[in-house]
Amino acid sequence: LAKTTQPISMDSYEGQEVNITCSHNNIATNDYITWYQQFPSQGPRFIIQGYKTKVTNEVASLFIPADRKSSTLSLPRVSLSDTAVYYCLVGPMNTGFQKLVFGTGTRLLVSP
Amino acid sequence: DGGITQSPKYLFRKEGQNVTLSCEQNLNHDAMYWYRQDPGQGLRLIYYSQIVNDFQKGDIAEGYSVSREKKESFPLTVTSAQKNPTAFYLCASSIDTGADTEAFFGQGTRLTVV
Predict the structure, then answer these.
(1) Closest chain A residue to B101, measured at CA
(2) Which residues of A touch B41 (CB under 8 A)?
(3) Between chain A and chain B, how many beta carbons pairs sit less than 8 Å apart?
(4) pLDDT per residue over B41-75, tens digit each?
(5) Are B45 and A98 in contact (CB under 8 A)?
(6) What residues of chain B lie within 8 A of the CB of A99, using their CB?
(7) Is residue A16 within 8 angstroms of chain B, CB to CB?
(8) Burial of A99 (0-12, 13-18, 19+ CB in 10 A)
(9) Could you give the 3-state DSSP secondary structure of residue B50?
(10) B46 at A interface, C-beta within 8 A
(11) Quick check: B97 pLDDT over 70?
(12) Is residue A92 within 8 Å of A101, Cβ to Cβ?
């Protein structure tokens, strides 16, 4: 499985755009990139998933360059409630969610 | 209201006692999972089940046991053989075990062994 590297923590202020980059140099051809968000004392929840180029939903955007060796989760105009840990997961299609590895993630702190 | 429910939210047990954590889902999902999370760490897979009456060990199965007698239920027993059981336990489910499916997590059970 592709190893992922994310910043341990990031700080931001309300209303700013936050970009969290995940490095996955040995991503395989059939790997997807998935991001989860976890609030304190809660289970993670799915944010966004992509394979290449750009994916956008009502919560975030995911940018994946052509070489797919990294990806960037973009959170527009963050609020205090976006303070959470964000996990980048990389894994093959159709071979099992259990194969996805939750690393330590990126701890985002949004201040007033 | 569909979802995945873990109970209890907090659990205290004495050292040497077995304890069972409940996980129920009404999403009609085939696959269910148990994870353990320690402070400041990521999630580690304990057990998973792809279908009723079948389950597989994850990365840290020693000291734990599970059953999957019903599609909607996947209880986890933390046995006295688990050397360091105090942790936050998370249950999840997904439609199947394909990596491109979304997994839904419960609110977790925080187990403290004293």
Answers:
(1) A97
(2) 104
(3) 69
(4) 999 999 999 999 999 999 999 999 999 999 999 99
(5) yes
(6) 99
(7) no
(8) middle
(9) strand
(10) no
(11) no
(12) no
